[in-house]
Specification:
The structure holds 2 protein chains of 2 kinds. Chain A is an all-alpha fold. Chain A has 6 helices and no strands. Chain A has helices at residues 2-29, 39-44, 52-76, 78-83, 87-114, 123-151. Chain A starts with a helix and ends with a helix. Chain B is mainly alpha-helical. Chain B has one domain. Chain B has helices at residues 5-28, 57-77, 80-83, 90-105, 108-111; strands at residues 33-36, 41-44. A two-stranded antiparallel sheet of chain B has the order 1-2. In chain B, helix 1 packs parallel to helix 4 (90-105). Chain B is flat and about 55 Å long. The chains are: A mainly alpha, B mainly alpha. The interface between A and B is large, with 37 and 41 residues.
């Protein structure tokens, strides 16, 4: 029961993180050129730097909660997923755990290049680090969702 | 709050070194410790499973952190002129490459 609660918290943190990193990635890769009127334009037109600290805190919290519930997955779920021959699902989950660590490793650089005032010479590093984090967060969110559907807690 | 410029160098070194040491630790199974979730015990180094599965992931993270810390300590003693020549590109090129290496290392999951 407590693992289910932790999994839900992990998922909710991931949703918030997904929204924040997607806003930032969209605004840095597809910046709005003029005052935005549409939904998409406003989505892209946010002040990207303001998201940085929130993204870092959310990433670390999501990672910590994921680390806490991981043993439950290892003991009760992984073997069953393997027994039913869902190798691709296991592969995507293995990638998830490693991608999450790589995302953790880039956080100090990500923070440094996003600190204000933004330095022009670090624009490319900012863009690429944000894209890497966005990819990792999207991958991990989708894989977590799929694995939970295959054999979620309490299943 | 002012951030020293040397933090930028350390952040670049940390990102690159952590990613590289971590992928090597995973590929060669250099886990600093092993967690046995069923009995809830931790043993130093790589231990075979007993009384349930063994988890090396936490140990790999610790190995990566130790390697990155060592690399940062080395970067601290590097002359400032040399440190300035470290491009910010390394902070994302190396982790990006490591993501691709992981995809390659785990390809058998998708080919079977």
């Amino acid at each position: 029961m407590s693992f289910t609660v932790l999994l839900i918290i992990h998922g909710l943190l991931a949703v918030a993180l997904l929204g924040a990193i997607t806003h930032q990635a969209a605004s840095v890769w597809l910046p709005a050129r003029k005052p935005a009127g549409s939904f998409v334009g406003r989505f892209r037109g946010v002040g990207a730097a303001a998201y940085t600290n929130g993204i870092i805190v959310l990433y670390i919290c999501t990672f910590v909660f994921g680390s806490i519930i991981y043993p439950e997955f290892r003991i009760n779920i992984r073997n069953i997923v393997e027994e039913v021959g869902q190798h691709a699902v296991m592969g995507t989950f293995e990638l998830k755990e490693h991608f999450a660590v790589v995302g953790l490793a880039v956080l100090p650089a990500y923070w440094f290049f996003w600190r204000l005032p933004l330095a022009d010479e670090h624009r490319r590093a900012r863009m690429c680090l944000t894209a890497i984090l966005a990819f990792v967060v999207w991958w991990n969110f989708l894989v977590g969702h799929v694995v939970n559907n295959v054999r979620g807690f309490g299943a | 709050m002012k951030t020293p410029r040397s933090f930028g160098l350390l952040a670049i070194v940390f990102a690159a070194a952590y990613a590289v040491v971590y992928v090597v630790a995973v590929a060669q199974n250099y886990a600093l410790f092993t967690y046995h979730p069923v009995p809830g015990t931790i043993t130093m180094g790589v231990m075979k499973p007993y009384d349930g599965p063994a988890m090396y992931w936490y140990g790999w993270i610790a190995t990566g952190a130790l390697g990155a810390l060592a690399a940062c300590l080395i970067a601290c003693v590097v002359p400032a002129t040399l440190g300035k020549r470290v491009s910010s590109v390394w902070s994302w090129v190396v982790p990006l490459g490591v993501l691709l290496v992981f995809a390659y290392l785990l390809r058998n999951y998708f080919l079977t």
